[in-house]
Structures are given as C-alpha cells and as structure tokens.
C-alpha cells in the first residue's frame, strides 16, 4: 500500500556546480550532473550564461577566419584593440584596419610573413613622466617579435660643417643646411668628411623639422676643419608619428647571439616595469628580461636573463610566465620555478621549485588578482594553492570534473586553448575550441575541498578572449570580435540545460512515485520551460512543458491554485508546478529552456513523491 507524501526541497539548485567525477546518490542535491550554458550567478543560483554580440563590421581581409588573438593597448591618447586572424594583424574595434609591419626608418612596409594567429601580447610604458608612451610587444613561435608603438619620422637633408677639431676629434660645427623632418633629440650618424664615428643629437628644429641646432654626441676620429657632414636620422624609437608595427630588433637591442630573425619567443610577459620573454626555438630554458621601462632594450642597463637548466631537470621547456606579488613564476610543462624579488632584478633569487606540476597551455594562465590559475596535465589549478599544498599534488580546482575535462583537453592542440578571468562575473573560463566546450570556474567562493564550482558552455566557442580596461569580456569569433553581452548568440537562441544529481530520499531500496514538482524561476520571456525527470539511471524519459511569463508582465502565476500575485521587481518570478508520473528507486530531475533576449535562473524546486514497496 502506498505511503504518505514525502518531499525534498532544493534551494539554490546547482550551487555546487557540476560533478561528473562522482555521480552516485551520495552526492548532495546541490551538485549538478549537467549544467550546460549555465553560470552560477551572484545570488548563488544556477542561471543562463550571457550571449555575444558583434563588435566590428565585416573586414574583407579577415573574411570568415577566426579571430584567435585579442588585446587592448591602454594608452594616453585612446585605447586600441589589436587582433589577429587569417594570418594578419588588425587594429580597431568597430572597424578593423589591416596592419602592415614597417621598416626601421618607417619609410616602407616590410615583407613580414605571418603564418599563425596565436600571439601573446603584453604592454608596458616606454620611459616615464611626460615622455611616457605605451608600447605593446607581440610574441609568437617562429615569428620575429613585434612592437606596436608610435613610429618615428625620419629627417633628411641636413648638413653641418666642421669648424674645429682636436687631434681629429670634432669640437664644434655649424648647421649649414637645415633639411626637413627632424625632431628634437633625434640621434644622427653622419656621412661624408674625412673621418669616422661622429654622431650628433638634434637640439632644435624649425617649423618644417629643419635642423637649427645640434650637440656633439660622439666626436669621432680623423676629421678635418671644413668637412661637410650629412646628418642621417637613426632615432628609430623617437615616437614622433602615429602608431604602427615594427620588428623589435629593428628599433631595439637583442640579447647576444640573436638577430632580428632568430629572436622569436613564444612567451611575452609585462611585469614590474619590464618585458620578460621565453620559449625560443633552440633556447627553451632561458627567460630574457628587458631594461626598466624599455621592453625593447635587451642589452645594457638592467636587462639580463635567467637560465633554469640547472634548476629544472630533463630539459623541461618553458611554456608560460606569470607575475604575482613581486614573484616571477616560470611554468614549464612538468615543473614550476618561482623567483622572488622580481621587482628588483639586482636582488632576484630562486625562491621555490615545484616538481611534477606544470602548465600545458600558454594561454590558460590568468591572474585573478589574488591568485594565478592555469591548466596542468591533471586539471585546472590554483598556483597559490599548489605552493601551499605541494604534498597534495592531485588537489585542483577542477576536481569535480577532472576526468571529463582532461578527456576533452587530450584532443586539443595546446596553442588553441584560450582562457580569461572576468572580474565582473568572477569566473575563469577555459575554452576548448576543438571539442566545442568551455569550462567555467566560479571564483567567488571555493567548495569545502578547495575546488571551484564549475559549469559548461557550448555553441559560443570562443577562439580567443580578452578582458578590457572597462571589464568587457571580448571573444574571438569567425570574422568578428564579439562581446559577451545580452542573452542571444548573435541574435540566435541557445539552450540552457540543468540536470540534478541522483537522489533516493535516503531510501535506496524503496520505490518512489513522483507526484509533483514545484519550481521557482526568475526571469525568462515567455519561453517554454521544459521539466524532465527519470528513474534509476535510465535517462530523463518523462517531461512536461510549462510556460514562463513574458518579460513585460509584472505578475507571476501559481498554476496549481490558478492565482496571481504582484512582484515589484525587474525580473519575472515564475512559480511553476507540474504533475509527475512513473516510478523507481532513484530519481533525477532536469530543466531545459531556449534562452533568447532574457536572463533566467532557477531559484529552487520542490519534489513530492509517494513511497511504495521495498525492493
């Protein structure tokens, strides 16, 4: 004979996120078995992710190719978006302008061949105070490093006549021909005359850039009075013109042994007023760092290098770099090396080596402000937690989805894996474009075991990601830069799916007959809300379609009692109820809805069953 009605109430369903690692009835009901196109919202509810909207107009050079790099350079005269796709570089946001790489004198475009689109871009200011100028540095395997900065204007035609010499060294000159296009502080070599090695600095110019005054920088040797010298403007880093791209080696200085074409790091980090470069073909265990406030000065000043060959065994290659709290973190594939004092390279020192854990994808590394998050070969990890818990090497943020996640990762090409940390949404998102899935780690509150609450996205498939100064999350799409915004994928709907874990009402051998499910749903816009259920791990074989209120309705209906009530808020509150059917010992509930132009989240649900015989 059937027994009395029993119920279970689940507030904040899915609050613990996905758990595909353990799928038994012992899981708390706040875990999810499926959470597709979901996020954990700031109220702790399982809700729909946002969609994306196009940012730029179509570009013929990009065509339908994927945008695989996005970066925002924050600069004094207006920020600029740099992006890459179809083996080209672009600047601009709403209108993409195809960029060329200029030669050292900024007089012509270079023939610079781009064969891939996975740049790592970082920026620091060049110089300080009134002379500061933001620079972006672009690194990609097998490509000479690029710099994006204000280009120089090259002067020409100026001449000086030697007035006096001392043992062949120039002691004074007179400007005899002004020329044009020069700027104050231009450094000039010379041609002509009887000697060699003299250089001059322009001290004053007229309105056409004609030289009116110079100072002697280097006196040279073997010159004679009356020598006529032509000034050759060699100040390729003078920041006199508009912004553009040049090869780093054409306007900077490279480490000993490298040429413009062979300095091809795959890793670039801006930290502590310097640029740090690593992962160069044939040199996988050295980090090169620039002089202070000059990311292109890799010789002289306080520039230098760190070689970890004696620290890390088996030639473990550098994959990524990060910075946190005056530490420099060097990620190899199977090891992590931590240097302290990175803000003062005179006192930089090895602080720690973490063996057996590394990073397998450069663009998985993100700084959340309080931690460094990265993808290892055993899951998504927190660096600070790894440092604190070296004795527990298998503990990670992705603990509850680790096997499923790493199964997808195994089919990915590492350079295609992208990530972002969104401070507005407080999540770390890891995009696996080959599989079509993104894993989203809520970083507001960790679970008791230190792991993160995880949901997944599909269909949105970011090919690259970047969070701007205004905290917008930009994503790379085919032919477009997209903005994570609204509740449609480029005006198309997407399906949110949330399935509960399995529960047996603490009676694993007793048959349950579902009588009713009551659900409280926030938001929506007149969509069909599909409630599904099933028994004994056999799938969700039963379903009931319910209707959400239209978004302009300020009421909610309780269908069981056919009554209405007012709600003075910006979201609909939908109180839904549906009858149940079927029976089994273990129950699972699911909810599905097509999201289009309206936010939606599930506040709670109540399940009512009658119990039957014991089996």
- Round the Cα radius of gyration to an integer and report it: 31 Å
Q: Which class do the helix and strand fractions yield?
A: mainly beta
- Principal-axes shape call: elongated
Could you list the spans in which at least 5 consecutive residues all have pLDDT below 50? 553-569
Largest sheet: 7 strands, antiparallel
What is the CATH H-level superfamily of the domain at 5-51 and 493-614? Galactose-binding domain-like
First-to-last CA distance: 14 Å
CATH architecture of the domain at 5-51 and 493-614: Sandwich
Report helical residue fraction: under 10%
Strand content: over 45%
* Contiguous helical run count: 3
Fold-level CATH name of the domain at 5-51 and 493-614: Jelly Rolls
What is the CATH C-level name of the domain at 5-51 and 493-614?
Answer: Mainly Beta
Averaging pLDDT over every residue, what do you get?
A: 91
Number of strands: 49
Give a structural overview.
By secondary structure, this protein is mainly beta. Among the domains are: 5-51 and 493-614, Sandwich (Jelly Rolls); 159-233. 3% of the residues lie in helices and 46% in strands. The strands form 11 sheets. Strands 1, 4, 5, 41, 46, 47 and 49 form a 7-stranded antiparallel beta sheet that branches. Strand 8 (80-85) and strand 9 form a beta hairpin. The protein is elongated. The model is unreliable at 553-569 (pLDDT under 50).
